[in-house]
Amino acid sequence: MNVSPARLKSAGPDRLGRYYTQDRIGSFLVEQMTGPEPAAVLDLGAGGGSLSLAAMTRWSGAELITVDIDSFSRAKLRERFRDAVVRHSHIRADALRIDLPKLVSSSINSIDAAVCNPPFIIPKWRTEFGHIIEEAGFSSSISTLPDVDAALLFLAQNIRLMSKGGALGIVLPDSLVSSVKYRPFRRDLLARFYVEKAVRLPRNSFAKTDAQAHILVIRKNACSASAVVLQELNEGFEGRELMVSVEQAEDRLDFRYHAQRVAFSSIYRARTRRLSDITQVLTRGCFTSAEVKNSNYPVLHTTDIPEELCGCWCDISSFGKSQPASGSRFAIAEPGDVLVARVGRNLERKVIGVAKGYARLSDCVYKIRVAEAHRELLLKRLGSESGRVWLASQAYGVSAKQLTKSSLLAFPF
Ligand SMILES: C[S@@+](CC[C@H](N)C(=O)[O-])C[C@H]1O[C@@H](n2cnc3c(N)ncnc32)[C@H](O)[C@@H]1O
């Protein structure tokens, strides 16, 4: 089977992360929040008001306070609420100002519920962000600074603004829920707050994006939980639940990851070796996507790996019939190697073996070399249904997913 060069696509994000929540997701988020009817509800980054309206539909007696930096937000909120919300104040401001509690307290004394769908962007670092994070109790997360997701800052700001015992329903990007970078944040969150529930959302939950997001329901009080309820909501809006320990939740707050870990535990228990035990080389290519586009010679990128060839030995000689005379900078795929996509929406379906030919690789492709005796079995296992499920459960990411080298090395072989 032949693999040959394909073309690349790209897309650009909105500067303020204005991807609005679909109404049914807004209602779902509010339904997850337990406890007595709040007196005041806060919505930071309220946008067009999907979450605010859902909250006010449920808690019609509450007072609403919305904040958004976007000058169009006020008119959008007015249009959406018309007469539906009686007591509403809107502040046009940067929600990440250190003095926001002062601004908000001029409208409302105490906030006992908050809803939030923050922008999924990484803002330019300001010193006050460090104070917001620290004051909210996420000081371990500071080691990952200064490129911190706005979502973490919005969460921290909500915590600062809420009164003790207050409930927060917040939409978070997959990175906060799954990535190694944010593990210290999850540790702090689980230790200091009561995480009532984490729900993995379907990809189409927001207008104009298919970002992978989750809802977290958090209560600001002294006692943390000993177990966390995880849920996955499918496209048909049906939910499946499971419970994990706090240590497991610290690893990931993602239903799918843990459900697959449980489902395949008997298969994987029988396999005592890891990929790391048999790997001679596990490396990735050196060409960035931009270099792939501008390169004078063909470079094998994830887009060149057809999903229908997953698990097959392929002829890649259209990229090169012999070993390129290049420096050691280039990871070259050669016969016998197994190639696995490192990045991509369906990376678990992009696993091939090289039967013939040579190729320079983009940095989105891993090359795995094992002894000849293991090659057939490795490709069979990585490309099998259970292998794909395993890869999918390890991959994380808001838009394109990614697979870390350490996760791949942990593949039960
Ligand atoms: C993902 S949208 C969510 C909007 C709305 N809450 C919803 O769920 O549909 C994020 C919102 O945050 C606002 N935003 C972005 N950066 C902000 C900032 N620094 N301060 C306040 N609002 C901000 C955007 O204008 C946008 O309305």
From TrEMBL:
GO biological process: DNA restriction-modification system
Record family assignment: Belongs to the N(4)/N(6)-methyltransferase family.
SUPFAM superfamilies registered for this protein in UniProt: S-adenosyl-L-methionine-dependent methyltransferases (SSF53335)
A family per Pfam: N6_Mtase
Lineage per the UniProt record: Bacteria, Pseudomonadati, Pseudomonadota, Gammaproteobacteria, Lysobacterales
Highest taxon of the lineage: Bacteria
Keywords annotated in UniProt: DNA-binding, Restriction system
Entry keyword annotation includes DNA-binding: yes
InterPro entries: DNA_methylase_A-5 (IPR003356), Restrct_endonuc_typeI_TRD_sf (IPR044946), SAM-dependent_MTases_sf (IPR029063), Type-I_RE_MTase_Subunit (IPR052916)
GO MF terms, alphabetically ordered: DNA binding; N-methyltransferase activity
Domain (DNA methylase adenine-specific): residue spans on this chain: 15-236
Name of the protein in its database record: DNA methylase adenine-specific domain-containing protein
